[in-house]
């Protein structure tokens, strides 16, 4: 089979599209013939050696793949060949055939496309967990979404609206701001002049919950725009800059700084994670949420797709097609 291989840690341009041996399932594992593969910002960090985990090289990146079960290992009773599924992985998803522990695989309803299934895993799963469990977003509150045109940002907009919030989206270009409004944001703002705009749009009260996958200077602006008892969610650092917090702001404004590490959540709270997935899948079935697929590329173009995401050029989800 064909796969994308990271031979050693370095720039994404070093990724190699090559023939490797087909995987075979061991006990408790399944093999999936991939039909759609999700591309995520952390994939780019992983191949550069900048992510929280560092698998031994060579390895294939990729945290999500959807397709059809082709083989099952001993002890697997919940799936049979032919089942439509999506897998959540640590890595290994950029391949025509994907090996996964059966307990990391989810059955798909016929109404859900393979592409949407990939989008709902990491990006939408992260945003859902951030807003529901970590941010405890309430109906009627104001949600500020930074990096709002990315896959997690658009997910945060849609999930925030589903939870009854007023959503202020922030994105870097007119095109991205328009996409945020089309996706349901009540207001879309640029980063320039953001501090004054947030004062104006909240009547000086501030925002209740901030979803921040960006970091950098936008974090400081958000910290100064918090409402009393607000929750500032630290999701990631797409800007490349890990910001520092003037902790007197938290004291004076009485807001909480809340870390969001979705990988730790899925590993440590599998029952709650499964419940979140059921809610997301139900919202999708009811038409409440619908991922935006930004572009589709052949598997061989994984490096270019990743670089576009690292350069913050994507609006929504990027999918690789084997």
TrEMBL record:
Record-linked SUPFAM superfamilies: GroES-like, NAD(P)-binding Rossmann-fold domains
Upper classification of the organism: Bacteria, Pseudomonadati, Pseudomonadota, Alphaproteobacteria, Hyphomicrobiales
Domain Enoyl reductase (ER) as annotated: residue spans: 10-320
UniProt xrefs under SMART domains: PKS_ER
InterPro entries per the UniProt record, alphabetical: ADH-like_C, ADH-like_N, ER, GroES-like_sf, NAD(P)-bd_dom_sf, Zn-ADH-like_protein
Protein name (database record): NADPH:quinone oxidoreductase family protein
Gene3D superfamilies listed in its UniProt record: Medium-chain alcohol dehydrogenases, catalytic domain, NAD(P)-binding Rossmann-like Domain
Coiled coil: none
PANTHER family: QUINONE OXIDOREDUCTASE-LIKE PROTEIN 2 (PTHR43677:SF4), SHORT-CHAIN DEHYDROGENASE/REDUCTASE (PTHR43677)
UniProt xrefs under Pfam families: ADH_N (PF08240), ADH_zinc_N (PF00107)
């Amino acid at each position: 089979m064909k796969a994308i291989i990271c031979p050693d840690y370095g720039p994404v341009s070093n990724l190699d599209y090559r023939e490797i041996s087909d995987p075979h399932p061991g006990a408790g594992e399944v093999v999936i013939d991939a039909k759609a593969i999700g591309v995520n910002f952390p994939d780019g960090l992983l191949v550069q050696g900048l992510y929280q985990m560092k698998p031994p090289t060579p390895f294939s990146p990729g945290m999500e793949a959807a397709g059809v079960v082709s083989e099952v290992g001993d002890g697997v009773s919940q799936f049979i060949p032919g089942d439509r599924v999506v897998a959540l992985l640590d890595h290994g998803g950029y391949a025509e055939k994907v090996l996964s522990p059966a307990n990391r695989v989810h059955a798909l309803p016929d109404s859900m496309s393979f592409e949407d299934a990939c989008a709902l895993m990491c990006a939408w799963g992260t945003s859902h967990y951030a807003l529901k469990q970590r941010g405890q977003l309430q109906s009627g509150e104001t949600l500020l979404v930074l990096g709002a045109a990315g896959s997690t940002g658009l997910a945060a907009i849609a999930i925030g609206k589903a939870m009854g919030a007023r959503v202020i989206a922030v994105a870097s270009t007119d095109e991205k701001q328009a996409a945020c409004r089309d996706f349901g944001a009540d207001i879309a703002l640029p980063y320039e002049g953001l501090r004054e705009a947030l004062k104006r749009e909240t009547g000086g009260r501030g925002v209740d919950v901030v979803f921040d996958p960006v970091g950098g200077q936008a974090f400081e602006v958000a910290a100064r725009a918090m409402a009393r008892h607000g929750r500032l969610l630290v999701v990631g650092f797409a800007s490349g800059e890990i910001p520092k917090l003037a902790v007197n702001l938290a004291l004076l404004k009485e807001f909480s700084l809340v870390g969001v590490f979705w990988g730790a959540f899925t590993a440590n709270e599998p029952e709650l994670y499964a419940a979140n997935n059921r809610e997301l899948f139900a919202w999708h079935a009811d038409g409440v949420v619908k991922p935006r697929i930004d572009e589709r590329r052949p598997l061989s173009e994984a490096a270019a797709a990743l670089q576009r995401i690292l350069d913050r050029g994507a609006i929504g989800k990027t999918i690789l097609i084997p």
